[in-house]
């Protein structure tokens, strides 16, 4: 039994996988807390999808895929932030336009290539078993910067969540803070794409924070439990992937989703199980 | 405390306010009345420094708004606040104070929060999540958030709209107390009756100032006709 748990750790590629999965999921959970509380899951989805044309372009130009993805994610984040400041169009309409366009561009770019190889497929579906030491270092550095940024700007991020007008009246640069949050989302997504792939990365951003929200009515416990949940689920997902020899990204997301379902069932206020127990004991 | 001088505001080329001039002194409570779309909220937002007037000036305690933010308390309409945010009543109020003062909360800050909560009779609900509050309690949280910064000028947007009679009575009591303490108060409202009971002066606004005076003077029917475009506002007023 113990061997079953320690065996993956003997392999260097699994060590790297565990390191990146844990770091990326914790960073996503922390940033994702604000994404969930701001109700901007759709923005996360848009930025995640817009990373794809950047990767495709980098692939066509034979440039660094991570940098290409980062550039495209950042450009999309800034474009959404800028366009959504005008209140004529609802934010979600703007985002719908952008992210479909970005994905379409990616597809066209890919179709210029005679065959698209594993390299690109791995970006769509994750490549967590093929990471280098540089990847691990990159995730560690960017992740640390992101967590520090959230802690540093936390008070102001909360102010903008609570009430934009009052925050602006207190002298907070509300629009600039939006851009900051979008950029943090883009960066969190880019460093997590390797773990679960472009399509599933949204789950790292949203699911842990959404599950944690069901458990608590306070911000700090929400953020901490989201991070703990994310780390625990990605580790379990990786173990399952190793034992069963199935796709790591998909398993990580499925474990996270199971945890979310469990949180919903057990949620002290909203869950059906505690409600049933209250009903029976009454 | 507040002086608004010939303020004109345009939004997307549309004229919202035309040469609005008025003032609110310390120890004065002024009601801002007008039909929907008259520019009431726009005037508040201009005073808060959220909108730049196309012409005219706004001064708070003889300073431009940007230099007088610490003197301002703002109570937004209830739907402006994210009630589903995971925060309890005391934290929400403390947070408003921290944002304004920009430092870690000390004993004085906690005392200010406690005082603000007592003032609006929410001390017992201090640990309750804001999402679990009733409409009237929510209105009191917003007021406590504004009071926690110790404002000299208090701006309220529709504080009496959609709250029950006990809450209205409590708001009336709290606002009268603040006025007695020397706070200048400007509040928008739809409801002439409640404004007339409470306010020292009433401004009738419809793009421009139609009338500005004590409630008794503003009761005049022709003024109402000009402000609201219809005499309907007179029902139960005169």
TrEMBL record, chain A:
Annotated source species: Pilimelia terevasa
Pfam families: ABC-3 (PF00950)
UniProt KW keywords: Membrane, Transmembrane, Transmembrane helix, Transport
Transmembrane segments: 12-35, 65-83, 95-116, 136-154, 195-215, 222-240, 246-267
Membrane disposition: Multi-pass membrane protein
Any one of the GO CC terms: ATP-binding cassette (ABC) transporter complex
UniProt record similarity statement: Belongs to the ABC-3 integral membrane protein family.
Alphabetical list of CDD domains matching this protein: TM_ABC_iron-siderophores_like
Protein name: Anchored repeat-type ABC transporter permease subunit
Source species taxonomy: Bacteria, Bacillati, Actinomycetota, Actinomycetes, Micromonosporales
Main location: membrane
Subcellular location field: Cell membrane; Membrane
GO biological process: cellular response to iron ion; response to zinc ion; transmembrane transport
TrEMBL record, chain B:
Domain annotation ABC transporter: ranges: 2-231
Pfam families: ABC_tran
Gene3D superfamilies, A to Z: P-loop containing nucleotide triphosphate hydrolases (3.40.50.300)
Family matches, as InterPro entries: AAA+_ATPase, ABC_transporter-like_ATP-bd, ABC_transporter-like_CS, ABC_trspt_anch-rpt_ATP-bd, Metal_Ion_Import_ABC, P-loop_NTPase
Keyword ATP-binding on entry: yes
Keywords: ATP-binding, Nucleotide-binding, Transport
Gene Ontology MF terms in the entry: ATP binding; ATP hydrolysis activity
The keyword Nucleotide-binding appears for this protein: yes
Similarity comment text for this entry: Belongs to the ABC transporter superfamily.
NCBIfam families according to UniProt: anch_rpt_ABC (TIGR03771)
Name this polypeptide is given: Manganese ABC transporter ATP-binding protein
The species this protein was found in: Pilimelia terevasa
């Amino acid at each position: 039994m113990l061997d079953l748990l320690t065996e993956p750790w003997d392999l260097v590629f699994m060590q790297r996988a565990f390191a990146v999965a844990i770091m990326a999921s914790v960073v996503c959970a922390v940033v994702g807390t604000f994404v969930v509380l701001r109700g901007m899951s759709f923005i996360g989805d848009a930025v995640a999808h817009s990373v794809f044309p950047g990767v495709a372009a980098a692939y066509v130009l034979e440039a660094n895929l991570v940098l290409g993805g980062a550039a495209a994610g950042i450009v999309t984040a800034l474009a959404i932030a800028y366009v959504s400041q005008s209140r004529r169009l609802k934010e979600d309409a703007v985002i719908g336009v952008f992210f479909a366009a970005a994905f379409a561009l990616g597809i066209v770019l890919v179709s210029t290539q005679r065959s698209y190889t594993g390299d690109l497929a791995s970006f769509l579906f994750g490549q967590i078993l093929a990471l280098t030491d540089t990847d691990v270092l990159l995730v560690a550095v960017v992740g640390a910067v992101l967590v520090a940024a959230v802690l540093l700007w936390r008070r102001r991020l909360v102010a903008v969540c609570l009430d934009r007008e009052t925050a602006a009246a207190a002298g907070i640069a509300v629009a600039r803070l939006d851009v900051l949050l979008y950029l943090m989302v883009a960066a969190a997504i880019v460093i997590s794409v390797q773990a679960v792939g472009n399509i599933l990365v949204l789950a790292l951003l949203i699911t842990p924070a959404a599950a944690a929200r069901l458990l608590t009515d306070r911000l700090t416990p929400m953020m901490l439990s989201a991070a703990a949940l994310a780390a625990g689920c990605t580790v379990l997902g990786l173990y399952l992937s190793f034992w069963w020899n199935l796709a790591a990204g998909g398993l990580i997301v499925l474990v996270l989703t199971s945890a979310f379902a469990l949180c919903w069932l057990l949620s002290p206020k909203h869950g059906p199980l505690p409600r049933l127990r209250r009903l029976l004991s009454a | 405390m507040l002086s608004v001088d010939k303020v004109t505001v345009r939004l997307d080329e549309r004229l919202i306010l035309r040469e609005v001039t008025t003032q609110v002194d310390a120890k004065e409570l002024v009601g801002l009345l007008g039909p929907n779309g008259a520019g009431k909220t726009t005037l508040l937002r201009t005073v808060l420094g959220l909108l730049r007037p196309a012409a005219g000036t706004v001064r708070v305690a003889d300073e431009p708004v940007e230099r007088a933010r610490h003197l301002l308390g703002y109570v937004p309409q209830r739907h402006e606040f994210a009630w589903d945010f995971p925060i309890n009543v005391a934290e929400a109020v403390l947070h408003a104070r921290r944002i304004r003062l920009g430092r870690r909360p000390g004993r004085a800050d906690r005392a200010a929060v406690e005082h603000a909560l007592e003032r609006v009779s929410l001390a017992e609900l201090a640990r309750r999540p804001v999402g679990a509050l009733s409409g009237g309690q929510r209105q009191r949280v917003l007021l406590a958030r504004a009071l926690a910064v110790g404002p000299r000028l208090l701006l309220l947007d529709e504080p009496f709209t959609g709250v029950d009679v006990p809450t209205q009575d409590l708001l009336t009591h709290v606002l009268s107390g603040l006025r007695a303490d020397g706070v200048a108060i400007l509040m928008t409202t739809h409801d002439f009756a409640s404004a007339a009971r409470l306010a020292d002066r009433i401004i009738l606004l419809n793009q421009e100032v139609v009338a500005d005076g004590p409630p008794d003077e503003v009761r005049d029917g022709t003024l109402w006709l000009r402000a609201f475009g219809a005499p309907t506002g007179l029902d139960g007023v005169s």
